[in-house]
Amino acid sequence: MRMINIQTAFRDMKKNKLFTFINISGLAIGMACAMLILLWVNFELSHDDFHINKKNIYKVSYKNESYYGPGPLSAYLKKEFPEIKEATQFLHRGSCKLTQNNIGHFSEGAFVDQSFFDIFSFPLIKGNHKTLLTDPNSIVITQQLAKRIFGTDDPIGKVILIDDGYLKKTQSMTITGIMKDIPVNTHFKITGINKFQFLIPFKRIDKWVQTNWKVNMVQNYVLLPAGIDKKIVDQKIAGVVTKHNPEVKTDLSLVPLKNCYLYNIDGGGRFQNIYLFTFTALFILMIACINYINLSTVRSEKWSKQIAVKKILGASKKNLIKQFLIESVFFSYISMILAVILTIVLLPTLNNLFKSNIQIQYFSFHLIILILLPLIIGFLAGIYPAFILASTKPLKILGNNFRGHKSKGGEFFRNGLIIFQFALSIIMVIFGSIIYLQNQHFNKQNLGYKKENLLVVKMKGDLRNSFNIVKEEILKIRGVNRVSYSNNPITHRYWTVNNLKWDNQPEGQEMSFGMDMVGYDLDKVMGIKMLEGRFLSKNFSTDATKGVVINEEAAKRMNLIHPVGKTIRNLQRRNFEIIGVMKNFHTESLHQKIKPHLYIYSNKVGHYMYLSLNPGNTSMSELLSKIGKKIKAVVPTDPFSYYFLDSALNRLYDSEKITGILINFSTLITLLISCLGLIGLAFYTTGQRVKEISIRKVLGGSVMGIVLYLTKNIVKLVLIANIVAWPIAWMLANNWLQNYAYKINLGFSTFLMAGIFSFSIALITVSYQTIKAANINPVECLKRV
Amino acid sequence: MIETKNLKKIYTTEEVETTALNNVNLKVKEGEFIAIMGPSGCGKSTLLNILGLLDNPSEGEFFFNGEEVGGYSEKQRTNLRKSNIGFIFQSFNLIDELTVYENIELPLLYQKVSPAERKTKVKAVMEKLNILPRKNHFPQQLSGGQQQRVAVARAIVTKPKMILADEPTGNLDSENGDEVMDLLTQLHEEGTTIIMVTHSPSNAECAQRIINLFDGHIITENKKEEFHL
Predict the structure, then answer these.
(1) ipTM of predicted assembly, 2 dp
(2) How far is the C-alpha of A464 from the C-alpha of A345, rounded, in Å?
(3) For A519, which DSSP code?
(4) pLDDT class for A14, splitting at 50, 70, 90?
(5) CA A338 → CA A334, A358, A633, A669, distances in Å?
(6) Distance CA B201, CA A503 (A)
(7) pTM
(8) How far B148 CA sits from the closest chain A CA (Å)?
């Protein structure tokens, strides 16, 4: 019985090629798109899943504000609270220079302690898990770094020289372990794509970082025993920092490991994307199902004879429903096979785009999805047509004038589904355009400084020591305008300071400032305007010891009308005098409002050299090679490692880029599937109306008149779809834009454009069939009828 | 086998009410061969629908094998129909997507007959009707006469007690038409009850009794010996 149903389905597919093509391609594209999206969602959700203790690991945060806390915090938490099984800290240490055999290699690393390995499960290739970092001179490196430095040699026990800002001077460390490369799906991503490639003992860091409760620069993690309620621990630890530093008013709270990636305090809104795209995937599948439903019901005339005969021969309604469901599930499985092929073909592109390593795991729950999804889709797509068709009355067939049934209800339902399809497409077009416009807005936004032609060179020991010579040499190159440095990248708010006191400070006002230690004239390198006073300058000897420059936002929030000359106390346990106010500029992504920030002079050369370039007639690569040569001439052992500020800035908007790509891709697919459906419907409905068209023509209807008459319905449907879609799109877009501190205004024109676009695409889609039908020779088709 | 009492069928649309059958009283004995004649629109097909358990009467009683079935649900009618009645149509009504073999097999499938038994039965009936060489052909590949033979084979494969034939020769030339009539006569001789709607007086001649319908009434009933042709 089942065999014959599948056989019939197969023959029917061969006979009705258009129907088959539209249904299978629509379902396959829809399924492939949904699978890709869901694989991506699954990848996002899989972040940090590889830690055995994942359910009990928490990150310590200042409630919804910051993940960066004081250095002694985790040791204190472990000691004082029996509820905390284990605690550790993680201090990212930007780019460091590792030297072996006089060859330097730059690599990102972090300070952690031995308990880091007790909490997290980074797989180890070599070394003793229990004693990796117990020795203060030990270092653990990743497989990739080991290969880079040592090639095929065994690095265990080898000594490596490491130079970083905090270790005071170059230190020799002994390699005690090799880790597998850090998986892509972990929240331990530092600035965008960088991950740590080596780990060194936290106790090697400056004592003041280890013991100071006032500097927040360390990320702290705790492991709770299974079954302990996080809320209870939250209550107990809430005031720990305040106890040591009464000026801190913000409570501590624990953030589950899972949320560290998904709910990024620093902005990005990954979780929203996950919601957004899960729904998008479902919508795309729905739209593909709708095509099947619409085309099946509209084809009922063709099937009615078969149904009636079968009913007369004794088929029950159940038999027939089963037949149609088997057929739709069969369609669905064929589509799934194609969808899997499409997914396999497209997956590398997706991985490339999202810097991920998503794979289909055939022997996991993915397989269950591959088996179950077509069943569900086939069932959902087939159930309504099956009921409608199986309910056909076999009566009129005996009269030999059988013409299929045209139920008003069926048409109403079909129209409803077309409206639904188009409304979804329109929503996605509007939403996609708004994301695009917002991204454009980002690109055009005045950041408050000149991001073009700004080169950032990473500096370590030798280069830092020789900075002044290098600077002098570099400035001789035509095309290099100015040179300065900073301890941290200017485009990231790494350090914050609290508890500052200043003149005229309102009673009880407490605020945190971002802080950077920089070189002279950085304002001119960056092209930042001064509102008042001056920037740190070597012409004023006191600037180096007690000069501080604040930004406009700080001045406003500090309630200072003329800040220059006022004193800020308790900064690095000293008093500073405000010498200038910088016009606001963005130190973070545009998700964030500009926050108070201050800059003081660092007599120690920072890790980042900033160069403003003006290549003029020379090419940028030529200029870069000249700079590289000058640096090599002074410090031959250091690699020349640099990036352009604008490309680093772009990385802050990776999330937007991904959203934009996914939304545009999904919109395209939605439109494609909807249009496929319309083509099919136009084919069958105009086919059914051939007689009507012929009679109209015989009675004097013009081709144009008939085309208009036939398209009237689709125009009506798309109009209703627009009316439905606009408010929903408006709400969604408005909600999404709330994530941005600097956002576009929702203009009516976007909606109008989407409306016009939807009309055009619908009309173009149905035009071929309609014009063909309107040009039919009435004599011929009246004969046929 | 069949008895109707004051059978009435009224079709109602939004504005019009049409009485298709009015007070039809009819008795058909087991093994009888009956022809129903009458002009277009007289209610022949409606009567056949009701007798074939495809539709319910609006009023009156309808006994099938002594049981009142006028108020049966669709499911009950389907069950009764599939084991008792075979249909033959003017336009054959074979399923284009199925082969000759599969078309004939279909009613057996709905009766849940085992595969082995199906095979034997289908083969036997195909041999009987001389269509075995065509078993893998699709209906479109056959002539009208061949198609109708397949339709007859499909109607009799379940060995129904009664066959309803709706103008079985209407789309056939006289030679093929005669062949089909011979088949029906043969079936009748083997004991099957046959009710046939026809326009052709020569076909009607094969029947034992002719019922003339006009405007939903039975106007005359002639036994074979009373035929005045």
Answers:
(1) 0.79
(2) 48
(3) -
(4) confident
(5) 7, 19, 59, 16
(6) 120
(7) 0.76
(8) 14
